[in-house]
Design brief:
Elements (H helix, E strand, L loop, with lengths): L2 E5 L5 H9 L5 H4 L8 H11 L6 E8 L2 E11 L8 E9 L8 H15 L4 E3 L7 H10 L12
Parallel strand pairs: 4-5
Antiparallel strand pairs: 1-2, 2-3, 3-4
The chain binds acetyl coenzyme *A.
The site of acetyl coenzyme *A has 22 residues, from helix 2, strand 4, helix 4 and helix 5.
Protein name: D-amino-acid N-acetyltransferase Hpa3p
Length: about 150
């Protein structure tokens, strides 16, 4: 399978929306969050990818002209460094295209972007029960051994 990883383009919008929030199969469906992320949020996130003032980015995976996966990442300040840090927010490959190295390629692309954007670190998190993702993550990264909390 020949896959191209590239920055998202305006023409990708309908494909991206499908992979992002389709009620039957998508990234937000995976997180049982299709109803939590409103169309307004989806539109705002989409717009931010193309706003030079926003440190929010999207890259897509394309196979034979079809977008079959994506990653979203953003940079932010870090009190432990002068450089920014890069947070890999989201990663998704459509079910029929998994286990072909696309997820790995998306992460490798983000690693390159980390350097290009001048960030000093690249990190991400996943759920304890997401063993499939961890099979990939333990090959391309190291566990930081942190627990993630949020305000209830
Ligand atoms: N069984 C065995 N090994 C696996 C599995 C599995 N189910 N999944 C991945 N691996 C291993 C592979 O052996 C492979 O190793 P190799 O590169 O040495 O051959 C490695 O992990 C890389 O796998 P890829 O094929 O690159 O990963 P894939 O394209 O299948 O994408 C992903 C993985 C993104 C986790 C995909 O399964 C997916 O979209 N899942 C649903 C959404 C999700 O969980 N996203 C991540 C949430 S965390 C976050 O967003 C930061």
């Amino acid at each position: 399978m020949s896959v191209i990883i590239r920055p998202v383009e305006a023409k990708d919008k309908s494909n991206w929306i499908k992979l992002w929030c389709d009620p039957s199969e998508s990234y937000l469906k995976f997180y049982k969050s299709v109803d939590k992320v409103t169309p307004e949020i989806t539109e705002s996130t989409w717009q931010r990818f193309f706003d030079e003032k926003e440190p929010v980015y999207c890259a897509v995976a394309e196979v034979d002209g079809e977008v079959i996966g994506f990653t979203h990442y953003l940079t932010h300040r870090d009190t432990w460094m002068i450089k920014d840090t890069l947070y890999l927010n989201d990663l998704y490959v459509s079910p029929q295209n998994r286990l072909s190295g696309v997820g790995r390629k998306l992460i490798e692309y983000v690693y390159n972007e980390t350097d290009k954007l001048g960030a000093g670190k690249c990190y991400w998190c996943t759920q304890f029960e997401n063993h499939r993702a961890q099979l990939l993550y333990t090959k391309v990264g190291v566990s930081m051994g942190m627990l993630l909390y949020c305000r209830p």
